[in-house]
């Protein structure tokens, strides 16, 4: 099959992932970099989930959310990384039409679910700091399960809409996607359909997803800061802020990369790829490190887990 497709997406059987526009001599270096980062993602997130599930002291709403965050990070990076790494060693760099659909669907599901989960975690911190005496009442097991299930449900609905909209377009310009994974923006550039309505719907969908989550996070932290500043002791303020700093760091990295990518003009695809790299691989690698290095409970649980392993050996 040549580089040109037919006039409709139903005639396209595969796409070509252009990836990073670098010389062949850098492919090995990039492969090793991707391999290292992906290995760190697997080690960090599987390790975090194992510690949370095995340590009874971490059986709290905060760590229930954190376990799900690790699960999401692990899976959406796995949607992208293996295929990106394999393309460094193949000349065709092709991905099947079904594979492209699956990649867009799964990635959109998990990345949107992460946004809603981070909003739920901000609400959890708000209750813990602003209403500590009622924390166990407000953050019941049932509510936590509903918040997590709601995050996945919103991700699934968004993913279905985004995927169906993308693949109702007609692709007639080229099969070459100027990215290292299937994404709706570079796919739009291959379309000969009228994109006006598509862009309006995409913008509306993004607004419905991003605005509520950002509002919940911002309002929660406004109340948190207001409450913490009323604490008289320096030690008390430091302890209260320390419980939020990890979450705030994760939110900043993820939303910073997403906003940077979507605000980058289409004429700078390489910048868009770098931003995508941040939230597809760098963020899932950093999240376990941020929570383990800045969280005393996780460090204590990790120490106990390693001591158990040593005693068994």
UniProtKB/TrEMBL annotation:
* Membrane topology value: Multi-pass membrane protein
Q: Which residues cross the membrane?
A: 29-51, 63-81, 101-123, 209-229, 241-262, 274-293
Q: What is the first-listed, main subcellular location in coarse terms?
A: membrane
Q: Is the keyword Ubl conjugation in the record?
A: no
Tell me which residues make up the G-protein coupled receptors family 1 profile domain. Answer: 44-291
Indicate yes or no for the key word Membrane: yes
GO terms under cellular component? plasma membrane
Care to name a GO molecular-function term for this sequence? G protein-coupled receptor activity
The record's subcellular locations are: Cell membrane
Q: Which UniProt keywords apply?
A: Cell membrane, G-protein coupled receptor, Membrane, Olfaction, Receptor, Sensory transduction, Transducer, Transmembrane, Transmembrane helix
Enumerate the InterPro entries for this protein: GPCR_Rhodpsn (IPR000276), GPCR_Rhodpsn_7TM (IPR017452), Olfact_rcpt (IPR000725)
Gene3D superfamilies membership: Rhodopsin 7-helix transmembrane proteins
Family label = Belongs to the G-protein coupled receptor 1 family.
The entry's protein name is Olfactory receptor
In its UniProt entry, the species of origin is given as Cricetulus griseus
């Amino acid at each position: 099959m040549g580089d040109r497709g037919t006039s409709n997406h139903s005639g396209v059987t595969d796409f070509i992932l252009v990836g990073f526009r670098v010389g062949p001599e850098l492919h090995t270096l990039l492969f090793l970099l991707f391999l290292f980062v992906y290995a760190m993602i697997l080690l960090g997130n599987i390790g975090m989930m194992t510690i949370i599930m095995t340590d009874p002291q971490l059986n709290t709403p905060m760590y229930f959310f954190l376990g799900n965050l690790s699960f999401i990070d692990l899976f959406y990076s796995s949607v992208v990384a293996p295929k990106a790494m394999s393309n460094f060693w193949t000349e065709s760099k092709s991905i099947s039409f079904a594979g492209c659909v699956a990649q867009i669907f799964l990635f959109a599901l998990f990345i949107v679910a992460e946004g809603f989960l981070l909003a739920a975690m901000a609400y959890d911190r708000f209750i813990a700091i602003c209403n500590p005496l009622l924390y166990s009442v407000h953050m019941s097991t049932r509510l936590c399960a509903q918040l997590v299930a709601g995050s996945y449900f919103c991700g699934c609905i968004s993913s279905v809409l985004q995927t169906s909209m993308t693949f109702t377009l007609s692709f007639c310009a080229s099969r070459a996607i100027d990215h290292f994974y299937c994404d709706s923006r570079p796919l739009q550039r291959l379309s000969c359909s009228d994109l006006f309505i598509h862009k309006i719907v995409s913008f509306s969908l993004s607004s419905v997803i991003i605005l509520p989550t950002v509002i919940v996070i911002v309002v929660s932290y406004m109340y948190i800061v207001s409450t913490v500043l009323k604490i008289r002791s320096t030690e008390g303020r430091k302890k209260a802020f320390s419980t939020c700093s990890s979450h705030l760091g994760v939110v900043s990295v993820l939303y910073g990369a997403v906003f940077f990518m979507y605000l980058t003009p289409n004429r700078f695809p390489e910048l868009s790829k770098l931003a995508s790299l941040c939230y597809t691989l760098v963020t899932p690698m950093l999240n376990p490190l941020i929570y383990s290095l800045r969280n005393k409970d996780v460090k204590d649980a990790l120490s106990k887990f390693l001591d158990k392993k040593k005693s068994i050996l």
